[in-house]
Write a structure and sequence with these properties.
By secondary structure, this protein is an alpha+beta fold. The protein contains 19 helices and 22 strands. The protein folds into three domains: 209 residues, no CATH class; 244 residues, Rossmann fold, CATH 3.40.50.300; 68 residues, no CATH class. Helix 2 packs antiparallel against helix 3, helix 8 packs antiparallel against helix 14 and helix 13 runs parallel beside helix 14. The chain starts with 8 loop residues before the first strand and ends with a helix. The structure holds adenosine-5'-triphosphate and magnesium ion (MG).
Length: 601
């Protein structure tokens, strides 16, 4: 793409973010990125567009719109914002001919009309452009940074002109003070941009196009904006970066005031290789690809009966339909998943008390599955070792680990009689049975059901050891895989086990292991540092209905607004808020009839 005086441009694809329901701090950081993006390229064009696509899953069929975003920037630009990728042209239809001075015919047969905005109010709500997508197919901002010396004189002149005129309307006074502020910022070093805001309307016939134009003009007039379709449609449609010479009125904004025009808003979740989970608040399908997020942790929290396990099972089943090479390991304290393991392509293993399991922490340590420090943490918790003996235990473990190869042997080798007494429980059933024997083979995906293990302590202990064992045996080698724990609140009061889960989550990232953590009682999780870390460090979180204490916890961790809290307090089964990377949307999880039947408890 060449401009008259030889400047070359290339296209980048940008990722949109959720915006309208973000808390203010996060909005500010998004807007700072936006202004940094403009500053890093200095000139070009931003294009936001809405495309329509048909989507089908089982008995659900949708026509859903998707947003995509492009930046035309000087060739060779480096853009570390909004996941910019060099992906070539956005493949827009070509402007074929003028049907009349204000209407283009495009190469796909549809008609287009581009409106240029020519009057702005003193202030605009941030993110308002998103509301125009009900009518506009594309919104573009063509921009260029004004050279410093000129920027200062332009703002000075504008300010002087404003200050010497008298205001007949309140709006004018506002404009003047906005201009005053802008001038102050520019003098203090803020960049000034010359820009054009273009709205492209596309429709099949002229009459519809004209009614669209009327509607969109009415919407933006509500914001105090005026627009017109100028008789140079081809240049506007092509986002020519030298619009100034075509006599479209220039407008100026600095890096602060331009934030209101932030266009990279995408409130839907349509990850390209995503699993269909249900529909968003706007009725659009939600497609989630956990591997496209900054980390692979996925938390599902909600009160009992809010639809957590259903959401988890539906996700696992459909993920496997997309990619049957994915491996699962699940810890299932209530043996809910083992019942339907076949449907998610996993083998079910029911753990029973009184059976040897071969899960010796020292054996796990010698195979590298776990560090000796973690073995110590586990023993401290399992056998309530008093603080005064912690140092002794660690020392003995580090010194003896090369000479003994089981916890039972270790217990007998301990020299400190006080410590030895505390560890006696390890040498007799039920604990010794957990340690003795050989662990089960793990040929492929497996779900461990623990319903028959009655004692809560034993349940937690076996869950932890089995997780470590399975994780190392299977997941670290398997490429893409999912490790999931349901009823995870059972472990919330056992910090060493929470610590192990957190450790698995952290190590899993390197190996493509998704860590899916399903729990009621968000408040219990938020109370311990380890549980809190799990909540905070999950790029993806599905928040279902919460009761008051849970609401407090999720509000604090996810910085939810009052509107969102209200929504969660009253959310029907399967409905909630999905946070995925930088997006946040309301969602209704939709099982098919078969799934509802099979997965209901
Ligand atoms: N998305 C949904 N749409 C319709 N019905 C649902 C949905 N999710 C769950 N249900 C119904 O609600 C019941 C409870 O759901 P589920 O077992 O997922 O709850 P849960 O949050 O895991 O509860 P618990 O904490 O007790 O395990 C299911 O048996 C099913 O009948
Ligand atoms: Mg459940």
């Amino acid at each position: 793409m060449r401009r008259k005086y030889g400047r070359r441009y290339e296209w980048f694809r940008l990722h949109g973010v959720g915006f309208t329901i973000l808390p203010y701090v996060e909005r500010d950081s998004v807007l700072s990125d936006f202004s940094a993006l403009l500053a890093s390229v200095k000139e070009g064009a931003l294009l936001a567009r809405r495309l329509w696509r048909n989507y089908v899953y089982g008995n659900y069929a949708f026509t859903a719109s998707e947003m995509d975003f492009y930046l035309k920037a000087p060739a060779g630009s480096q853009i570390p914002y909004f996941n910019a990728e060099r992906l070539g042209d956005p493949c827009r239809p070509i402007a074929r001919r003028l049907v009349n001075p204000l209407t283009l015919e495009l190469s796909n047969g549809s008609l287009a009309r581009v409106l240029a905005v020519h009057r702005y109010p003193a202030s605009l709500p941030e993110g308002f452009l998103y509301t125009l997508f009900s009518e506009a197919s594309e919104i573009a901002i063509v921009f260029r940074e004004v050279e410093r010396g000129k920027a200062v004189s332009v703002t000075e002149v504008a300010r002087r002109r404003r200050l010497t005129s008298s205001f007949s309307r309140v709006e004018e006074a506002w404009e003047a003070s906005a201009l005053e502020e802008l001038a102050t910022r520019v003098l203090a070093g803020s960049s000034l941009y010359e820009f054009y805001l273009l709205l492209t309307l596309i429709d099949g016939d002229l009459k519809n196009l004209s009614s669209r134009e009327k509607r969109v003009k009415a919407i933006i007039r509500g914001y105090g904006i005026d627009s017109e379709a100028p008789p140079m449609q081809r240049e506007l449609y092509n986002l020519s970066t030298c619009l100034g010479i075509f006599c479209v009125e220039k407008h100026y904004a600095d890096s602060e005031s331009i934030k209101a025009l932030f266009p990279l808003i995408d409130e839907e979740l349509h990850d390209s290789k995503g699993v269909f989970l249900g529909v968003s608040g706007t009725g659009s399908p939600v497609l989630l690809d956990l591997w496209s997020k900054p980390n692979f942790n996925y938390v599902i929290v909600g009160v009992t009966g809010s639809g957590k396990s259903m959401a988890a099972k539906v996700f696992l089943k459909r993920l496997r339909e997309l990619d049957e090479s994915i491996v699962y390991v699940g810890v299932d304290p209530e043996s809910e998943y083992t019942r339907v393991a076949g449907l998610i392509g996993a083998q079910a293993v029911e753990i029973r008390e009184g059976v040897k399991l071969g899960l010796d922490p020292l054996k796990l340590a010698s195979s590298g599955a776990i560090g000796l420090g973690q073995v110590a943490d586990l023993l401290i918790e399992l056998y309530s070792i008093p603080r005064r003996l912690h140092g002794v235990l660690r020392r003995e473990l580090f010194m003896n680990s090369d000479f003994v190869d089981s916890i039972v042997e270790f217990t007998y080798s301990v020299k400190d009689s006080d410590l030895s007494k505390h560890l006696q429980g390890a040498t007799v059933p039920p604990d010794s049975l957990v340690y003795e024997g050989t662990p089960i083979a793990l040929p492929s995906s497996v779900v461990f059901g623990l319903r028959n293990v009655r004692s809560k302590r034993l349940k937690a202990m076996i869950s932890a050891l089995i997780s470590i064992y399975a994780y190392n045996k299977l997941l670290a080698k398997a490429g893409r895989s999912v490790f999931f724990v349901d009823e995870a609140w059972l472990f919330a009061e056992t910090p060493s086990i929470m610590g192990l889960f957190e450790n698995i989550a952290r190590r899993g990232r390197k190996h493509g292991v998704v860590f899916m953590y399903v729990s009621q009682r968000a408040e219990d999780l938020a109370r311990t540092p380890q549980g809190r870390a799990v909540l905070e460090q999950s790029a993806t979180a599905l928040l279902l209905r919460q009761e008051p204490q849970g609401l407090d916890a999720v509000r604090e961790v996810y910085k939810l607004s009052d509107v969102e809290l209200d929504f969660l307090a009253n959310a029907p089964v399967g409905t909630g808020i999905l946070k995925a990377g930088r997006k946040r949307l309301t969602i209704q999880v939709l099982p098919t009839q078969e799934e509802l039947k099979e997965f209901s408890t």
